[in-house]
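Table 4 source record.
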Amino acid sequence: MKDNEEVDKYFPLFLRIAGVCLVIAVVFPFAINQVFSDWAKSGTFGDTFGALNALFSGLALAGVIVTILIQRTELKNQRIELGLQRDEMKETRKEFLLNRTTSLVYQQLGRFERALSELTIKMPNGTIIKGNDAILYLDENENRVYNPYDKPEEKYNAEMKTALINMLKIYSPNKSELNKFSHSISTSVDVLQRLIYKTDLEIDELNDLKNLFFVNIGFINMGVIQRIVEVAKKQFDYLTAEDCVANNIDIGAIGHADIFLSSVTEFYNLKLTKENFQEHKRKWIDSLGNLEK
């Protein structure tokens, strides 16, 4: 409707120009006759009208000018419309990309959750538990040690040693299950990283997708995973070979699981920004070696 209004506004202008030219055409021979008193002096009547060729040429020129103005307006409106279409196509493509990526994130989330549901833990009394029961058991037996500013270092070290031994008594007999579990969830997070680093979305949208994944995993599950990583790393700082022999535990038993779970927790704790995105993307590509070269 607006485009028609832009074009139609020139039509009255054309009518006004045509009307003025018509009046001049009618009045002109009589005006000439008034000046020269009779037609003999002013030339023949036909010659008088011949002088109006310039006026009618002007009328034609006015029509051309109006046409040019109309075409200019139409071209301007076409450019605006094409710009809107490009913006709409860009938004549609972005929405499609976001929906597709979200769908793939949920697929990996399902894979992660299946690994959690299949996790099997053998308790010290021989009872075998699985899935949520296994996760809750590991969560209830985290044996975390806190270090307030007034706690003596010797006491903290002793408490840390006891906690690590208690945790390894649970982890060591289940190292095969933990290794399988860590490999499965690490693969899911690897695919998530590929989606994050290879998808042309805004940083806020990428963080939303990452948070969507880990929020659905749940903080209890991630807490259990982070605790396994902590124990795997701290055991070498607080335990000796004698401690392991005395307590019948295998130091380094969960080293394989730690390799995979460390990458999971690192990505879980990562906050992507415009400033650090390219740096983390480069590190991720470097970690893949020739796979992304």
